[in-house]
Amino acid sequence: MDTIRRLVSREQGYDPQAAVIAGTLGSAAYLAEMDRQGLADIVTTGAAGWNVGEVTVEILRVASESEAGLTQASIIEAARNLEFAPSLLREGMTYIMNGEDDGFYSEDVQVIKYLAAEGHFEDVGEVYSYETSAE
After folding, report:
1. What long-range pairs does 17-22 form, CB within 8 A, spacing at least 24?
2. Longest dimension (CA), the chain
């Protein structure tokens, strides 16, 4: 069986498994719900779906509060102008989109490495911002 000797990646959210160990998770509600559903063993992979769900709900909330109400156009407009920090996003990071001028909501990343023996990721260095960090 092949083993991973070194895996380096990038992330915006917390690795919930590492956060459980370190006690730094931004959303206790996520862990509580995953535990209640009997899914505590997949908190790391489940975090992606939780994040997408939170972003979707925020877009729909903003669209429903628009003058037009909840329409296809208002949903698109809300998504294109998103400014939101989901509960599993790292502290200080925010998803920001600016219509057609900037269609990338993710401007900040954290380099991480996988610790196979511990079964979770660990941060490497500081958060990098494509908007504000030096090249």
Report:
1. 17/43, 17/44, 17/119, 17/120, 18/118, 18/120, 18/121, 18/122, 21/118, 21/120
2. 59
Q: How far is CA 48 from the centre of its chain?
A: 7
- The answer to whether 127 and 93 are in contact (CB under 8 A) is yes
Q: Which residues of 44-80 are buried (b: 16+ CB within 10 A; e: fewer)?
A: bebbeebbeebbeebbeebbeeeeeeeeeebbebbbb
Cα gap 80→29, rounded to integer Å: 27
Tokens representing residue 85 in the block: 């920090």
Query: How far is residue 107's CA from residue 96's CA, in Å, rounded to a whole number?
Result: 8
Give the pLDDT of the chain (135 residues) as one tens digit per residue: 455 556 666 667 766 666 655 555 567 788 888 999 999 888 888 888 998 999 999 999 999 999 999 999 999 999 999 999 888 888 778 888 888 887 777 778 888 888 888 777 888 888 887 777 665
* pTM, to two decimals: 0.76
Specify the pairing of strand 108-115 against strand 120-123: antiparallel
